[in-house]
Design a protein that fits this description.
Blueprint lengths: L2 H40 L4 H8 L4 H12 L10 E2 L5 E12 L10 H8 L5 E7 L6 E3 L1 H9 L4 E8 L2 H6 L4 E6 L8 E6 L3 E3 L2 E3 L4 E5 L2 E5 L4 H25 L2 H8 L3
Parallel strand pairs: 2-3, 3-5, 4-5, 5-6
Antiparallel strand pairs: 1-6, 2-7, 2-10, 8-9, 10-11
Helix pairs in contact: 3-7, 7-8
């Protein structure tokens, strides 16, 4: 065997060995990435990460995911309307006001104000005003305090006032009415961080409240991770379908291909 032929065979062996090394290294890298991905998926999200991810999913998908997982209606009715187009998510800070007509107690609503000062970034003020559709549960002063403390927004079963100012400072509020009235002398603080039923939906302190142009939904904190994962999958499927519907010129074919409606 001449030297040229020998060197040629050695070169081929070296190249083959390098190729195998590259392939095994690539496979190991893929395995590592998958392992890291699975580890990340299995690791519970922090509260701040959870809320941050909920801000990027549509409330309609959250509502659908909730129905599949909890088998309950966890969205508020059409009466719950935004004072301007807004999207937010955060942890519920609940407040209840009870009727106390004609009271002259200067401390009747102090607890309501203290509840605001106890909230912080990622809080959502969820207030129930008993029979209060024509009573403003909050206005510009309370909204300013919430905005200063980093609240994500407010959801009021009852009225809201000072709407022009709330729009000016861009503090998002969903409410069942816009009225000029006051709760002073008409209502009394009945508790905060307690279970309430807001516009037909049970809300506990710490539940995740999500809101956008489609409305408001409430995610029980114990099921927040599972609901988020399913809602993200639903969002992905739905957003993928827009292009398919245009391509096929058929929603039937798109639904058959993706399986989402």
């Amino acid at each position: 065997m001449n030297l040229d032929h020998l060197f040629s065979r050695i070169r081929i062996l070296i190249l083959a060995f390098a190729a195998l090394t590259f392939i095994f290294a690539g496979a190991a890298q893929v395995h590592l990435v998958r392992a890291q991905s699975n580890s990340t998926a299995a690791t519970p999200l922090s509260d701040s990460d959870m809320v941050a991810q909920y801000r990027h999913v549509e409330v309609a998908s959250v509502s659908d995911a909730l129905e599949q997982i909890t088998h309950k209606k966890m969205y508020m009715s059409h009466r719950m309307q935004p004072i301007f187009t807004a999207k937010f998510a955060g942890f519920a800070r609940t407040v209840l006001l009870k009727k106390d007509e004609g009271n002259n107690d200067p401390e009747a609503l102090t607890g309501m104000l203290e509840a605001i000062d106890q909230g912080s970034t990622d809080s959502v003020y969820v207030m129930v005003v008993e029979d209060g559709e024509d009573i403003a549960g909050m206005g510009g002063l309370m909204g300013t305090a919430m905005a200063a403390r980093g609240y994500a927004g407010a959801v009021i079963e009852g009225g809201v006032r000072d709407v022009a100012y709330l729009r000016k400072i861009a503090f998002p509020v969903f409410a069942t009415g816009i009225v000029p009235s006051t709760s002073v002398h008409h209502y009394r603080f009945a508790g905060s961080q307690i279970p309430v039923v807001c516009n037909g939906v049970a809300v506990n302190a710490g539940d995740i409240v999500v809101a956008d142009s489609d409305g408001v939904a409430v995610v029980p904190k114990a099921q927040a991770q599972a609901v988020l994962t399913l809602a993200q999958q639903m969002d992905y499927k739905e957003h993928s379908m827009y292009a398919l519907i245009e391509q096929f010129k058929s929603i039937v074919q798109a639904v058959k291909k993706v399986g989402r409606l």
